[in-house]
């Protein structure tokens, strides 16, 4: 087939020696690496930081950096290789690769998750640029920051404080009509009005020009302008196409998890993954306490490699979770 290709005769010498050329995708380096691993009986899942819809970018001293874990950089600079996980663009516009996807290595050192990429731009003396990303457990998804450059080894070091670096198993809780109950402590807590309200999340703009909005109602959508969204918890719509809609989160098999005062809600769906028809789409909302806002607004984060749609929601509604629900001494349950 097209991916396998066929061998072709390149040259032949006196009928005794033939040289063939075989163009095939079979020997191409992988464009996606494993993002979940287990070390010392603890599970680490970095899929939260692996985006199909963009990359993590920031500017340090005039230089722009683009990072995407476990796969290539999306929405990066034009000259960033489609095999690169880390790129930089100088203030003059020069683009350099700081590490390729297939060179990824994962490790845990002193409670930090270390992700390394190599085979970047040539540095002279048979050396190539490499990147070391140090992830430290934190309460939010976070963003990468520049740490330092080691000219002797031509290595760029980045720091990233993120919940993805935490090896924990959150406490699953039950939900009935907007009220959460912790089966361990027996305590209950109500999400109040945000459970029954209809919200809209924006921020999903794809490289092909598509723009999506997400209607979100935790109790299930009942009054959408798009009738096809009725009954879903999360529905993907296009603002300029009234005929497009897709349920990416439904209430059956919904899981609620509490960890250190934060609430994670995981929705399954029957919609098939466009990239892998054997998988179904799922959605996760990460709730964080923000006492400065009342309801807050959910925001689209990104789509992961395994068809998870991720959202962040900062709201005062979950602030009581920290002390009134977990208990003052409760902490994450480590594997």
From TrEMBL:
Molecular functions (GO terms): D-mannose binding; signaling receptor activity
Subcellular location: Endomembrane system
MRH domain segment(s): 33-168, 176-321
InterPro entries in alphabetical order: CIMR_rpt, Man6P_isomerase_rcpt-bd_dom_sf, MRH_dom
Record's GO cellular component terms: endosome membrane; Golgi membrane
Record Pfam families: CIMR
One of the GO BP terms on file: lysosomal transport
PROSITE patterns: MRH
Keywords tagged on the record: Disulfide bond, Membrane, Receptor, Signal, Transmembrane, Transmembrane helix, Transport
Matches recorded under PANTHER family: MANNOSE 6-PHOSPHATE RECEPTOR-LIKE PROTEIN 1, MANNOSE-6-PHOSPHATE RECEPTOR FAMILY MEMBER
Protein name in the entry: Insulin-like growth factor 2 receptor
Organism: Phodopus campbelli
Gene name of the record: Igf2r
């Amino acid at each position: 087939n097209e991916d396998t290709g066929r061998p072709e005769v390149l040259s032949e010498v006196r009928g005794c020696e033939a040289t063939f050329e075989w163009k095939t995708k079979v020997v191409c380096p992988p464009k996606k690496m494993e993002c979940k691993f287990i070390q010392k009986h603890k599970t680490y899942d970095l899929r939260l930081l692996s985006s199909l819809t963009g990359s993590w970018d920031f500017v340090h001293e005039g230089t722009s950096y683009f990072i995407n874990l476990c796969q290539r950089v999306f929405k990066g600079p034009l000259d960033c290789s489609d095999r690169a996980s880390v790129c930089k663009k100088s203030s003059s516009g020069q683009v350099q690769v700081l590490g390729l996807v297939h060179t990824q290595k994962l490790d845990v050192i002193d409670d930090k998750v270390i992700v390394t990429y190599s085979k970047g731009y040539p540095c002279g003396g048979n050396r190539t640029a490499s990147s070391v990303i140090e992830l430290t457990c934190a309460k939010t998804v976070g963003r990468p920051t520049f740490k330092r450059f080691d000219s002797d080894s031509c290595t760029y070091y980045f720091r990233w404080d993120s919940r993805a670096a935490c090896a924990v198993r959150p406490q699953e809780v039950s939900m009935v009509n907007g009220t959460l109950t912790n089966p361990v402590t027996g305590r209950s807590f109500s999400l109040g009005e945000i459970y029954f309200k209809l919200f809209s999340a924006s921020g999903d703009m794809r490289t092909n020009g598509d723009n999506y909005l997400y209607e979100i109602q935790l109790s299930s959508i009942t009054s959408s302008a798009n009738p096809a969204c009725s009954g879903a918890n999360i529905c993907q719509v296009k603002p300029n196409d009234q005929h497009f809609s897709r349920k990416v989160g439904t209430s059956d098999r919904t899981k609620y998890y509490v960890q250190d005062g934060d609430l994670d809600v995981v929705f399954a769906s029957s919609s098939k993954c466009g990239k892998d028809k054997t998988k179904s789409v799922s959605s996760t909302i990460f709730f964080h306490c923000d006492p400065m806002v009342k309801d807050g607004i959910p925001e689209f984060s990104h789509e992961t490699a395994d068809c998870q749609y991720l959202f962040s929601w900062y709201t005062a509604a979950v602030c009581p979770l920290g002390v009134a629900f977990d208990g003052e001494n409760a902490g994450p349950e480590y594997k």
